[in-house]
Amino acid sequence: MEAAAQTPSRPGARPQENLVATTRVTLDVNGQSHTLDVDNRTSLLDLLREHLRLTGTKKGCDHGQCGACTVHLDGRRVNACLTLAVMHQGARVVTIEGLGTPERLHPMQAAFVRHDGYQCGYCTPGQICSAVAVLDEIKAGLPSHVTPDLQARPLLSIDELRERMSGNLCRCGAYSNIIDAMAEVAGVPVPGAGDRRPA
């Protein structure tokens, strides 16, 4: 990373007023390398949306409370609004645009469509990115708050899925359909799920 500071541009301004510290950062985003000079205060979310125009990742609360901005960072899910872009030199980022395409959906995207796991759709990119990561976490044996035995591998259960998705909020209330979609991909039976599927 190269750090630089821009000189004051406003006539008569004191030097400290207009200094903007920037850093050159290179990221692998959805399989493509990008090198940008960014203000050190730029969040990963703003880099994705404002600099790379990857607007699938949504800005909801901008405080890490809703999960709409969830992306994969070096294989783990993060709230992109809570981390600075310059902290991730050389990192690999996958956004909703990198999971699948309209012609070839990721299995989780296809399951969300089948189970109507969205309504307005605003939170859906973060929900899907989080859902994919949840299944990876369970497969890797990472425990959650509802894992009964922290020394044992967590069970792939509806309770585990619900707990792990609790950081992703849906104001439309599509939670049961989201869990149905995840359960289908994971191969977990959901009691009464057939009653909730759209006609």
TrEMBL record:
Cellular localization per UniProt: Periplasm
Enzyme category, top tier: oxidoreductase
Gene Ontology molecular function: any one: 2 iron, 2 sulfur cluster binding
InterPro entries from the UniProt entry: 2Fe-2S-bd, 2Fe-2S-bd_dom_sf, 2Fe-2S_ferredoxin-like_sf, 2Fe-2S_ferredoxin-type, 2Fe2S_fd_BS, Aldehyde_Oxdr_Iron-Sulfur, Beta-grasp_dom_sf
Main location per the UniProt record: periplasm
Keywords noted in UniProt: 2Fe-2S, Iron, Iron-sulfur, Metal-binding, Oxidoreductase, Periplasm, Signal
Pfam families the UniProt entry points to: Fer2, Fer2_2
Presence of the UniProt keyword Oxidoreductase in the record: yes
Gene Ontology annotations for the cellular component aspect, listed alphabetically: periplasmic space
Entry superkingdom: Bacteria
Reactions catalysed: an aldehyde + A + H2O = a carboxylate + AH2 + H(+)
Residue stretches making up the 2Fe-2S ferredoxin-type domain: 23-99
Listed EC numbers: 1.2.99.6
Complex and partners: Heterotrimer composed of PaoA, PaoB and PaoC.
Function: Oxidizes aldehydes to the corresponding carboxylic acids with a preference for aromatic aldehydes. It might play a role in the detoxification of aldehydes to avoid cell damage.
Official protein name in the record: Aldehyde oxidoreductase iron-sulfur-binding subunit PaoA
Source lineage: Bacteria, Pseudomonadati, Pseudomonadota, Betaproteobacteria, Burkholderiales
